[in-house]
Amino acid sequence: MSHSTRCAACKSLRRRCPRDCILAPYFPSNDPQRFSSVHKIFGASNISKILQQLPVQERAKAADCMSFEATSRIQDPVYGCVRIISQLQQQLLITQRELVMTQAQLAFYYAQQQ
Amino acid sequence: MSHSTRCAACKSLRRRCPRDCILAPYFPSNDPQRFSSVHKIFGASNISKILQQLPVQERAKAADCMSFEATSRIQDPVYGCVRIISQLQQQLLITQRELVMTQAQLAFYYAQQQ
After folding, report:
1. Is B40 on the interface with A (CB under 8 A)?
2. Hey, is the C-beta of A86 within 8 angstroms of any chain B C-beta?
């Protein structure tokens, strides 16, 4: 038996959407762009394989993360979401340096007081 | 004409490696694991498409970033490299809070001195 409405994946791939469709819970028909992005970057077959290897309760999170990665790569075809990692590392380094300097100033004032 | 040695991609896909192979410069034969990972996650066809759309001088960086994303997803099939983003955001938040507190303490000592 199939769904009365096909999921975004089955609709895009022009196939019947079975009741136990592995993609249906994570790629609803009302958000075709979400499937289109992951399909373009990972391919439907790879997404299905990755989801199939996971326990059911972890699949939604995996689908969300793959959607995020795919959207990032479409927006930024060179770096994808790795650019965000690089920016956060840079920001963290700057903040850590500022913290060390502020702590040093504070230590100086403590020492002066005693 | 083809290469005397096929690149890791053409070797894995059991095809002739043409002189102008789009994957050869970024997936050398001495690192079959690198191609195997991106092939498993993105698929050879998607990687080729993404690289083809980019200017030649940006392709190496894109291949490196896709290799990193693929390795991260193989090691962590739920979160992939999105886990690193989440951890860095958390670490940045903690460091920013500590900085704000240290700056406040410093401001207090400055005020006391005057």
Report:
1. yes
2. no
CB distance B5 to B35 below 8 Å: no
DSSP-assigned states of every residue in B33-72: HHHHHHHHHT-HHHHHHHHHTS-HHHHHHHHHHHHHHHHH
pLDDT, tens only, A40-89: 999 999 999 999 999 999 999 999 999 999 999 999 999 999 999 999 99
Do residues B63 and B39 touch, judged by C-beta distance below 8 A?
no
**What percentage of chain A reaches a pLDDT higher than 90?**
89
pLDDT tens-place string over residues B5-36: 899 999 999 999 999 999 999 999 999 999 99
Mutual orientation of helices A56-75 and A32-41 as an angle, nearest 10°?
A: 80
Q: Which chain A residues contact residue B96 at CB under 8 A?
A: 95
Answer yes or no: do A54 and B82 touch at CB < 8 A. no
Q: Hey, how many other C-beta atoms are within 10 angstroms of the C-beta on B41?
A: 28
What local confidence, expressed as pLDDT, does residue B21 receive? Answer: 95
Residue pair B47/A64 in contact by the 8 Å Cβ criterion: no
